[in-house]
Amino acid sequence: MRSLIALSVLLPATLALADGKVVAPRDYRGSLEEEAQEAIIIYEAGKSAASGKEDMILKIRVAGEVASFAWIIPFPNEPKIAKEDPKLFKELFDYVEARTRRTYKKGRGMGGGGEMAVKAAESAVEVLSRRIVGSYDTAVVREKKAGALNGWLKQEGFQTLDDAEDVIGYYRKKGYVFACIKVSDVELAKGKPVESHPLRFTFGTGGRDGIYFPMKMTGLQEKPFNINLYVFYGAWLNGKLNKYGYVHRGFSLRFRDWDSPKCKANAGKAWSAPQHDPYLRDMARRLPTVTELFQTLHPGERYYLTNIQAFGLKPDKVREWPNDLWLFPYYIDRQFVPFDARPGGPASK
To answer: Which of 26, 86, 169, 349 has its CA at a distance of 20 to 30 angstroms from the CA of residue 342?
Structure first.
């Protein structure tokens, strides 16, 4: 069961998408913005408490005039980090575009240089892991004391996150960790944004039926942003069934897979073997990289793809959200409260 976000090269240049925060070097005085951010989130629902797992693949497009920057992303638990193929995003974008054209045609529309140091702040910032992944220097840290993350960033030669204690403190109190990615092999120039190569973060959500996507951190930026999510899950998602639906967070449905007469009802699609799936068969040749991804990570598992979008989200409003974005399956019973949204769950208020 699964999720994601779309191609920056095919989105407006002014687009800024959620999921973390980019931080400029300490002495930099120009602008540094996420013009676009892409993500693929594959979610495996758990059968018991705290057993849900995600594979979140992220790629961002950044504009500015710096040679290095830090990218900070919050997670419920320590993630494992690996490099992924950028072709994934192109194939998935093309797949949804092709499906959407067919759907409309048939009238079946669906609703500081060097490695990051780990020194003086160790008592207040716990470094859980660090490694080089592709062209990135990565570290996963947990803030133990208010202001410690800012001290650590400053020590690394980056600007601090000013007036951000409400957001940083929110994650600290929940025991979340921060993946700090140092990008130092780019040459950004005014008017020439650069795209990072994708990274995959594999982590436990701390729940059993909610798909996690970090958004409150993006509330620290200044410009409104759009989000385009392609969600892989073993069932359809709750859109407007009750207050746990995604429409109540400003999202709307663009597309989702359906069951044709040849498909087994409510069984998902065989993304790891699309050539043998009656629904995916005619698209299989367009999805070699995506197929390989699912063969590697989740062979034999079945998913529905749902594409939801939100436009013009205001950072100050997102910052006031009681929680990050959590997506839930479509439970037929309107009164059913998702497990992760119950008191004590990771998606509870």
So the answer is: 169
